[in-house]
Design brief:
The complex is a heterodimer of chains A (108) and B (110). With 108 residues, chain A is an all-beta fold. Chain A has strands at 4-7, 10-14, 19-25, 33-38, 45-50, 56-59, 62-67, 72-77, 86-92, 97-98, 102-107. In chain A, strand 7 (62-67) and strand 8 (72-77) form a beta hairpin. By secondary structure, chain B is mainly beta. Chain B has strands spanning 4-7, 10-13, 19-25, 31-37, 43-51, 54-57, 65-70, 73-78, 87-94, 99-101, 105-109. In chain B, the strands form two sheets. In chain B, strands 2, 4, 5, 6, 9, 10 and 11 form a seven-stranded mixed beta sheet that branches. Chain B has a four-stranded antiparallel beta sheet with strand order 1-3-8-7, with no helix packed on it. Classes of the chains: A mainly beta (108), B mainly beta (110). Chain A binds chain B through residues 1, 6, 9, 32, 34, 36, 41-46, 49, 89, 93, 96-101, and chain B through 4, 33, 35, 40-45, 48, 58-59, 90, 92, 97-104.
Chain lengths: 108, 110
């Protein structure tokens, strides 16, 4: 039933590098594409989201890129910092289904 | 005060016991959700409710039941707990698309 597939499962990046996490979706009826961030011991929290009428949205160091034809959306973290180390989830907002998560580790 | 609270935060119980997890919210949202999180499996939807009189099964509802006592309260019950229900449980609320999560309940079934 999973409607979003996320990759990679884990990612290690050096401080200052670019982190890229991808999400492929199946249902073309989505109208909201979110990324959630979860720190250990905490619940997930919305990081950034995009609607399909735009191809990119940037908030500080975080950017969502949306490719409607490929049914994919990606999270880019520029100038990655150790404080960005967390687990990231993409989601199908309409069905309340989440990807399996990507554990990001940013090494100092 | 936290907008979404869950009690208890940690619970250890034995196989066959009945257990209830509670969720309260002060955000005024109509929609509430229960998820479980297992390592490597992300968040899986157990039940959701779009208002007090609306209860819907999610992806993995077997072995669970819920009660929506009020707009602000949504409880999850395990009628007869089993070890594979050991997991981290999250409650969430939303008005529309963005979901707001509680801090989670870590449940261990021995």
């Amino acid at each position: 039933q999973q409607q979003v597939k996320q990759s990679p499962q884990s990612l290690i990046v050096q401080k200052g590098g670019i982190s890229i996490i991808n999400c492929a979706y199946e249902n073309t009826a989505f109208d909201y594409f979110p990324w959630y961030q979860q720190f250990p011991g905490k619940g997930p929290a919305l990081l950034i989201a995009i609607r399909p009428d735009v191809s990119e949205k940037k908030e500080g160091r975080f950017t969502i890129s949306f490719n409607k034809s490929a049914k994919q959306f990606s999270l880019h973290i520029m100038d990655s910092q150790p404080g960005d180390s967390a687990t990231y989830f993409c989601a199908n907002a309409g069905k309340s289904t989440f990807g399996d998560g990507t554990t990001l580790t940013v090494k100092p | 005060d936290a907008d979404v609270t869950q009690t208890p935060r940690n619970r250890i119980t034995k196989t066959g016991k009945r257990i209830m997890l509670e969720c309260s919210q002060t955000k005024g949202h109509d929609r509430m959700y229960w998820y479980r999180q297992d390592p490597g499996l992300g968040l899986r939807l157990i039940y959701y409710s779009f208002d007090v009189k609306d209860i819907n099964k999610g992806e993995i509802s077997d072995g669970y039941s819920v009660s929506r006592q009020a707009q602000a309260k949504f409880s999850l019950s395990l009628e007869s707990a089993i070890p594979n229900q050991t997991a981290l449980y999250f409650c969430a609320t939303s008005r529309l698309n963005e979901q707001f999560f509680g801090p989670g309940t870590r449940l261990t079934v021995l």
